[in-house]
Amino acid sequence: MAVLPTNPSSLELTISIPGFASSPTTFLPSSTVKKLDMNRVAIEEEWMEVEDEEENSLNGDTPRKKLRLTKEQSHLLEEKFRTNHTLNPKQKESLAMQLKLRPRQVEVWFQNRRARSKLKQTEMECEYLKRWFGTLTEQNRRLQREVEELRAMKVGPPTVLSPHSCDPLPASTLSMCPRCERVTTNTADKFLTDAVTLSPKVSTPALHSRQS
DNA sequence: CTCCCGGACAGATTTACCTCA
DNA sequence: AGTGAGGTAAATCTGTCCGGG
Q1: Which of A24, A72, A105, A171 is the most buried (most CB within 10 A)?
Q2: Chain B nucleotides reached by a protein CB under 7 Å
Q3: Which segments in chain A show pLDDT lower than 70?
């Protein structure tokens, strides 16, 4: 395995040898892998050595170690992600080279990043829908109150006004509005019920167009 | 057209590491 | 200083889709 002297001044984070995608577990002696500088072990021959070592130690019981990206690496990955959420093989290769990482690590990072941004988006939508639900609930309450008030008002002989001329219509005998010919009931009660049913339309928010 | 294979990806899960009480 | 809980992110696993032979 390639164990190189650490250089604390070049990195904020020091890392251990990461696992490889092709091998589910990385088994390296913990005494030797601790605090390895990722940026110093990434050249090809060294990775080959690491892979050999891994191959040889697959049956060991040393727990795999996890890579921690440096701030610089994360920053560059984020920058690339901002312009492109997926990479073609060429881009992946060149970015990996630039970051001194393996292409597989770049690929994994992008996969996880996509998952994180989708999760974030879903959470935002969830919050938005919660607020919308609250608004609708409140609106519904208001309309119910209004219905109750209108019901209370109709206790005496009801007078229903034509929606067009505002002329009083005899509600008890009304069967149809003379103008629009749509009211089929002859009771003010039904008229009021319809008014509630036909409450103002609430436009559905365009959830997917809110992403910026 | 169907089958098979390999690569890319999403989603779920595991796990190492970090922070904080 | 030590420790356990919880969070984060890298890595892995599994299943699906799709293009090419």
Answers
A1: A105
A2: 7-12, 15-18
A3: 1-64, 156-212
